[in-house]
Amino acid sequence: MVGKGNRKAPVAVAGMQIDYATFRQMFFNETKKCVQTRGSQEPCTRTCASDNLECYVVDNNGFVMISEDPIHTGKFFGEVDGTIMESLIQHNIYKEIEIFDYQAICLETKKDGSDASMIFTPFKMIGWAFQALLSHFTWFIIRMEIHHIWNPDWSFAMPQSPPEVKDYVDNYYDDTYPSEPTGSSTTNDPLIEEFPLKDGSPIPLLPMTYINKTTPKPCDKRVFLYELNDEKLYKPNKQTGKPRPIKGRLSNCHNSECERPFSVQLIPHTNLMLIVADKLCPCFSTKLTIVPTKIEYGPSNETGYCEKLKYNIYRKKPAHCLSYHPEEVEIKLCGGTSGLCASTSTIILATLYCLTGYLRYTQ
């Protein structure tokens, strides 16, 4: 650090890369050692290697760096042991910070219907019977041709005309009978004809298959993140001068009304924290997640849409005000959308068509 007085700045930063497996092994090698209390006659058994304790190394944002179970590495500590994490938040060891994301993307799943049948009930059978009766009644009304009551069609007797003589050509065929199959493909798709199957037959036409699709849409999300409170853990012990551990106890967390003690201590010269908890009391562990959730705006949150502009919108102000640009005079306000107006040519053509049909009918 180079500077003058209280003003100092780092000139260079040195770092060291350590293999994670080696770092984890070093941690357990050190925590397996037991420091005997001076004057104590009892054997030292309370280490991270014992079956009664579980140890975690957590960073300043609450993510697990080292755990006895390797699967916990990299996870948020609230997902591993949410009960202890809630206690740390209540004791102000971790500060809860609310973050809003106003440029988030929400994936909404579009579900298609299924052809599977539903569970039949007597009410479903009654509904089917009512639909059948209604369809038969409607078809009966159509067959009776009731519309002739207000719009009758009159018929007149006409003299019988002689039958017309038709000249048939040699290649006459009846349209009512299908022609013989030619063996060609049933589709005009050139790709199907170009790429046949191995046995030479064309590719069969399959029905379109619908799957669930996700539609990305813009939305607002909210998430709670956590930051270590330095003032709570950096208070040194008056005798040793080292950061003192903070001890807590989870009470009435089981039917047996047992208590689960835990201890939190800052690792010197790092942003890491050692958490040691008791295993003997099986507390029900809740889970705290840091997954962003969608903000629903509605009657219960109608002011949230307006209030969101007041929080967490940090942006750089422009250097100067740009109220005019010389090239604005070249902008021509024109639109390509069509207006809601009647087409004169279409009306004229429709009128002529109706008049022509009416004149032909009256002649």
UniProtKB/TrEMBL annotation:
GO terms under cellular component: voltage-gated calcium channel complex
Superkingdom of origin: Eukaryota
Domain Voltage-dependent calcium channel alpha-2/delta subunit conserved region: 12-117, 256-328
Coiled coil: none
One GO MF term attached to the UniProt entry: voltage-gated calcium channel activity
A Pfam family matched in the record: VGCC_alpha2
Cited PANTHER family: STOLID, ISOFORM H, VOLTAGE-DEPENDENT CALCIUM CHANNEL SUBUNIT ALPHA-2/DELTA-RELATED
Name of this protein: Voltage-dependent calcium channel alpha-2/delta subunit conserved region domain-containing protein
